[in-house]
Amino acid sequence: MGASDGRSPGRHNDNQPSSVKKESKGEKMALCAVGGATLAYILYKWYQRPTTSHEEELKETEEIEEATAEFDEYRKGNSNKVLALGLPASGKSSMVARFIYDEAKTEYEPTNGFNIKNMSMDGKTVEIWEIGGSMSKYWYTYLPGTGVLVFVIDASDSSNFPAVRLELQKLFDNDGLKLEKTKFVLLLNKQDLTGGSLDKDTINSILPNESCMKDHVVKIVQTSLLQATVDEFNTIKNTVLELLYQ
Ligand SMILES: Nc1nc2c(ncn2[C@@H]2O[C@H](COP(=O)(O)OP(=O)(O)O)[C@@H](O)[C@H]2O)c(=O)[nH]1
Ligand SMILES: [Mg+2]
Question: Does residue 55 belong to any structural domain of this protein?
């Protein structure tokens, strides 16, 4: 019976595997084609990816440096804010009065909040901001845009020095002031009560450590805002303005 089928089992068996073989070859080819296309696509995407080669990075750095230099140049001509800070009764209002009216101030009224005055100098307007000493917690809100920060210190009252040191340290550490390259003038005031000036060791005891000040230009001025002559105060005024437009 088996032979009368006209098919030997062997033949049948031969045909079956060969058709299976054919299908799997097709599948393999299809798989290869899909795999190849995927690989080609991945490679294409990889080559198209945004790259930052060393040269590109250097170019980017150069561009940033150029823009920063341009901005510094712009600031030189446009920075016009002088900010007076200091503990209460150190002499901030006295300094503003000498800047604006060249008058020594003898009475004392604490400045509530802030006090902004404009001064014309060589065709430019300079803004002088005084922020009340009792507002030290909020000083940071008035810092942006400061070209020169004048920190006024009552040099005749050594009991204030630790508090002055602490406030200075916070200001020198302020990231915004570092970024804006704000210059500092430390105005050691009331020297009519100290016998003329403070010695180096005393000044060093008021200053925060060197590393804290390294990001800023710092000038130390010793004076008596009450007794300085017009010429003496003009020298201080010029120091501040030169720093402002440096
Ligand atoms: N003896 C002396 N007193 C001063 C001097 N500068 C300011 N004062 C006085 O210190 C007090 C406080 O000054 P003020 O400018 O109002 O301080 P502010 O609170 O920092 O604004 C006032 O009575 C001023 O007359 C100074 O150089 N010598
Ligand atoms: Mg005041």
Answer: no
- Indicate if 84 and 44 belong to the same structural domain: no
Q: Identity (one letter) of the amino acid at 180? A: E
Tell me which residue range forms the domain holding 23.
9-48
The minimum-distance atom of ligand 1 relative to the CA of 152 is: 20
CA-closest residue to ligand 1 atom 1: 190
Given its phi and psi angles, is residue 218 left (phi above 0), alpha (psi -120 to 50 degrees) or beta? Answer: beta
Which protein residue has the closest C-alpha to ligand 1 atom 24?
A: 106
Domain containing 121 — which CATH number?
A: 3.40.50.300
Question: What is the tens place of the pLDDT at every residue in 67-120?
Answer: 777 766 666 656 689 999 999 999 999 999 999 988 777 788 888 888 999 988
Residues of the chain above pLDDT 70, percent: 86
Question: Cα(73) to centroid of ligand 1, in Å?
Answer: 36
CB-count burial class (<10 Å; 0-12, 13-18, 19+) for 147: buried
Cα of 18 from ligand 1 centre, angstroms: 108
Q: What's the number of domains the chain is made of?
A: 2
